[in-house]
Design brief:
Radius of gyration: 55 Å
Shape: rod-shaped
Largest sheet: 6 strands, antiparallel
Number of helices: 12
Helix content: 40-55%
Structural class: alpha+beta
Number of strands: 18
Distance between the termini: 22 Å
Oligomer: single chain
């Protein structure tokens, strides 16, 4: 019996699909977990940077304010050395005073209508500042100081009769960055401006500032490619430009779009992700490609926190960390190779297992077929042996009847003839079944029924000269296995309850066979299909190995026939029907 190749292909395809689905799901799930883990690590790194920068900025602001207090002291010293009338103070005098005080310079500022300008200065470039209206909150601070002798705006450092802004690019362009302090107590007709180069503050920032923190973080994390501090107010917009006394535009230190770090790995989606992190106030991580390589960008918003100390003057910003996503890709590729090896090994194992299973099924069916074929040959031999035996013994029967008749034993003769006629009729009934193979099978089952004390009845009609589309060996398989199944079942009962009935007839161009036998009263026909599976049996043991009904079902389906099972009045009936042609 051959293996159904269609079943093999379908099973193999299902196994392959399940493997592909399972491993694809595992691959994407692992990728998601690794991406999430990397995002969380970048968020943690951003939090550490944020904390370090906050501490650094508080320290630098404290240093700024110390410098601011010193500038106020220097301004008081300058007031004591200068005439209260600006017209009586010379630039040369301010140069000498700056040298004595150890600062970079002095400027005296006065009103000019509704504006404020530099009137005298030790720095020639400062003298070019003829207007400060465009200085923003700086101009507001100057005005409040001149009008009220005190500054009330939120920005900058405020002391008695004194205000100092953040270290900034001078409007005069006299230096890169300077720290300015402004003093006015109403005793002069000018505002004293004292300034120093902010190299100390910058040096402090170089030691513990944001850029240093970024460099150390990059050095300790090889997979981090870039860290940026994007201004939470001006990034993505055109910052306000101021012009120095020479007309050269400059941008305030705290208006720079990038406050610290570098911003070279750019993308058109950066601004959207930047805004999303600010609006949602939570980290945003995205996977992109840069120069053909996959990268992970994490945006983390750092708002201005609630003011805790007087030296806090933070600007909100977004920390952007760019990490090399290829580390994840390498991990995934390694796992993919491992998975591929596992898939190949498992596929080979599955194929071998499927082959062995089908081989076992085939062998079992081949065993059943061989047994049926041997039984068929034995049955035919037995039937012909019976017929030959009757012909061989015919002379003996005649001589016996003659002897009884010659001795006048008429009653004994009649009894002997009756027994002989019953035996001949029994054989004739089998022969009259009309189908040699079925007749031979019934002959064999009669002998088996006599040995096992089974009341075996049969009735076949309309099979004479029947042209079937079924092989005789398959007819024997079907009917023989049904009868064997019935015999095995009734052997559970006492001898007087063992009864099996077989009927066969032709109907609507179909051969119909029914086999009926008693069944256990507790038997339930709930699982119809289970009865026809290989290995199913209600017997504790037996020679048929649970193959009989599965062979019947396979052969019936092969010939496009039908099989019905019913239970009524304590009996189970198997009714099969196969086409004649």
């Amino acid at each position: 019996m051959r293996i159904n190749t269609k079943v093999i292909y379908v099973t193999f395809a299902i196994v392959i699909l399940l493997l592909v689905f399972n491993n694809t799901s595992y691959y994407w799930f692992t990728k998601s977990l690794l991406t999430q883990a990397l995002s969380e690590r970048m968020e943690s790194t951003a939090s550490q940077i944020r904390t370090s920068i906050e501490q650094s900025e508080e320290g630098s602001f404290f240093v700024e304010d110390l410098i601011g207090e010193n500038l106020r002291s220097v301004a008081l010293f300058a007031k004591s050395q200068l005439d209260p009338d600006i017209e009586k103070v010379t630039n040369e005098q301010l140069i000498e005073l700056a040298r004595q005080a150890g600062v970079d310079g002095f400027s005296l500022m006065k009103r000019n209508g509704d504006d404020i300008m530099v009137g005298k200065s030790s720095e020639p470039k400062e003298l070019q500042i003829r207007s400060t209206k465009t200085f923003g909150y700086w101009f507001t601070a100057f005005s409040q100081l001149l009008d009220n002798h005190q500054v009330t705006i939120a920005e900058g450092q405020k002391l008695l009769n004194f205000w100092s802004g953040i270290y900034e690019v001078p409007a005069s362009g006299s230096s890169n960055v300077s720290k300015f302090g402004y003093f006015y107590d109403g005793s002069t007709n000018y505002l004293i401006c004292v300034f120093v180069n902010a190299d100390k503050i910058q040096k402090f920032k170089q030691i513990v500032g944001a850029d240093t923190i970024v460099k150390k973080t990059l050095a300790s994390n090889p997979d981090i490619m870039e860290i940026s501090g994007l201004n939470g107010i001006t990034f993505g917009t055109k910052p306000i430009e101021y012009k120095d006394s020479s007309g050269v535009p400059f941008i305030s230190v705290y208006d720079r779009p990038v406050l610290f770090g570098t911003y070279n790995i750019t993308s058109t989606k950066d601004l959207d992700n930047y805004k999303e992190s600010i609006q949602e106030n939570k980290p945003v991580s995205v996977v992109e490609r840069w120069n053909g390589k996959p990268i992970l960008k994490t945006f983390m918003y750092v708002p201005v926190k609630e003011k805790l100390t007087e030296v806090q003057r933070e600007v909100p910003y977004v920390i952007t960390i760019v990490s090399d996503y290829q580390t994840i890709q390498r991990t995934l590729n390694k796992q993919l190779v491992q998975l591929t090896v596992l898939i190949v090994l498992f596929t080979i194992f599955s194929c071998v297992l499927i082959y062995l299973v089908f081989r076992f099924i085939t062998k079992s069916r081949e065993t059943a077929v061989q047994s049926t074929q041997e039984m068929y040959i034995q049955n035919v031999d037995l039937m012909f042996a019976t017929i030959r035996s009757q012909r061989h013994d015919f002379l003996n029967h005649v001589q016996t009847m003659y002897a009884l008749l010659s001795k006048g034993k008429k009653e004994d003769q009649m009894k002997y003839m009756k027994e002989l006629i019953e035996e001949i009729n029994e054989v004739n009934d089998i022969i009259r079944i009309g189908h040699p193979a079925i007749a031979a099978l019934i002959q064999a089952k009669i002998a088996l029924a006599m040995r096992t004390k089974i009341d075996f009845n049969y009735h076949f009609t309309g099979l004479e000269g029947l042209s079937l589309g079924v092989k005789s060996v398959d007819i024997v398989k079907i009917i023989g296995n049904l009868i064997d199944n019935a015999f095995d079942e009734v052997n559970k009962f006492p001898p007087d309850e063992r009864e099996v009935m077989v009927n066969g007839w032709s109907e609507s161009n179909h051969l119909t066979i029914s086999v009926t036998n008693p069944v256990d009263p507790e038997f339930q026909l709930d699982d119809y299909n289970k009865m026809f599976t290989i290995g199913y049996s209600t017997k504790g043991g037996g020679e048929h190995q649970g193959l009989g009904l599965s062979v019947v079902k396979e052969r019936i389906e092969f010939y496009k026939g039908t099989i019905e099972v019913s239970v009524a009045d304590g009996c189970i009936c198997f009714k099969i029907s196969v086409p004649m042609q």
